[in-house]
Design goal:
Layout: E1 14-18, E2 23-30, E3 33-36, E4 39-46, E5 50-52, E6 57-59, E7 62-64, E8 67-69, E9 72-74, E10 77-79, E11 82-85, E12 90-92, E13 95-97, E14 99-102, E15 107-109, E16 112-114, H1 117-126
Parallel strand pairs: 1-3, 2-4, 3-5, 4-6, 4-7, 5-8, 6-9, 7-10, 8-11, 9-12, 10-13, 11-14, 12-15, 13-16
């Protein structure tokens, strides 16, 4: 029986799958996680995780909670949590993440910014001549 109530989307559940022989062009916006095994020319914005399978290829930017790369990504990557490279993963572009995991054999050609609020706050407090601190002085 179908329910009439709205179902909440879980960012942990893979709700979108782009198959191996699929080619897409455009922007994907989703609340749940997405797995891409095909080709995408465009952007991915997800509140969940983005998983690029071995056969997956993205030419564009990705913004997600966590990003797992087993295929090829040409573009900028921003993860609120971690970026993880499998041994077959390739990223040609810059990344921003709090955590980074790279398996042996993975390829990364770009710049990486590691974000951690605690580390950023600590670095700012210790900067010589810095006019701000946590107490607003």
């Amino acid at each position: 029986m179908l329910s009439k109530g709205k179902k909440e989307t879980s960012p942990d559940k893979i709700e979108t799958l782009i198959g191996k022989d699929t080619q897409l062009e455009g922007t994907i916006h989703c609340k749940g996680s997405v797995r891409i095994d095909g080709n995408l020319k465009g952007k991915v914005c997800s509140k969940g995780d983005v998983i690029i399978g071995d056969s997956g290829c993205i030419e564009g930017d990705i913004k997600a909670r966590n990003i797992i790369i087993s295929g090829l990504v040409k573009g900028k990557v921003h993860a609120e949590g971690r970026v993880e490279f499998a041994s077959t993963g390739k990223l040609l572009g810059d990344m921003t993440a709090k955590k980074l995991i790279i398996d042996e054999g993975a390829v990364f050609d770009g710049n990486c910014i590691m974000e951690s609020k605690e580390v950023l706050d600590q670095n700012l407090d210790q900067s010589p001549g810095h006019s701000f601190n946590k107490k607003g002085k």
